Q: What sequence folds into this?
């Protein structure tokens, strides 16, 4: 019963606590709030034997906030437009290539595991930040809630692997770091990119937005090819 009324507050409280733990642990990816929050919620719902529908009665208002968040993604693109314009060609080409790899990997998984149309639609936007990914998923016949899970997994893996790749390949260019993290790990990667500096974080934000825009147009084509 408590989740019916206070699901929204409980979710925010868990996220706030997870964020404090994440910061005190020197930003270890496995302790990311994007991973810890849903994990704790699942455990609580199972422990209390609460159906998801009951929890969502209150918590659904968090999902409503994703719509204005999608529009807000245009802010960094506007704010740092001069930086983007100066490096437009390498950014756009790199993001196009990265998005192509992400979509191709979706196709590979679809064939490998013989996924049905709903799962294909849910998987394709996995490299796009959550607000855009859920909208894209709904348009192409996916299940937004499952898409959100794929997005979280992609972000966590990207945040873990990305810095390791940067370190071992000795990628010292701030713009290259930002493109790598923003294109492959969306918001989680962008958070990690800001740890490398403002320029890397800014370019990561721009790359994340471009990845979303490209996927909006490419996802329906990919779905038709896979059917």
A:
């Amino acid at each position: 019963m408590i989740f019916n009324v206070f699901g929204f507050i409980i979710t925010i409280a868990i996220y706030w606590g997870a964020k404090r733990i994440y910061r005190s642990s020197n930003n270890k990816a496995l302790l990311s709030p994007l991973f810890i929050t849903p994990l704790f919620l699942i455990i609580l719902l199972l422990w209390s034997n609460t159906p998801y529908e009951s929890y969502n009665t209150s918590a659904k208002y968090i999902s409503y906030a994703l719509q204005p968040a999608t529009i807000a993604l245009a802010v960094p693109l506007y704010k740092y437009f001069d930086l983007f314009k100066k490096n437009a060609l390498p950014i756009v080409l790199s993001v196009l290539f990265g998005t192509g790899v992400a979509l191709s990997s979706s196709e590979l998984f679809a064939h490998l595991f013989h996924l049905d149309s709903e799962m294909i639609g849910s998987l394709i936007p996995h490299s796009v930040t959550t607000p855009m990914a859920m909208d894209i998923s709904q348009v192409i016949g996916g299940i937004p809630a499952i898409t959100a899970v794929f997005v979280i997994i992609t972000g966590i893996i990207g945040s873990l692997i990305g810095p390791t790749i940067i370190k071992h390949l000795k990628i010292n260019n701030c713009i290259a770091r930002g493109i790598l993290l923003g294109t492959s790990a969306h918001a989680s990667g962008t958070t990690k990119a800001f740890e490398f500096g403002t320029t890397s974080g800014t370019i990561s934000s721009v790359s994340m937005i471009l990845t979303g825009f490209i996927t909006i147009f490419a996802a329906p084509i990919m779905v038709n090819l896979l059917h």
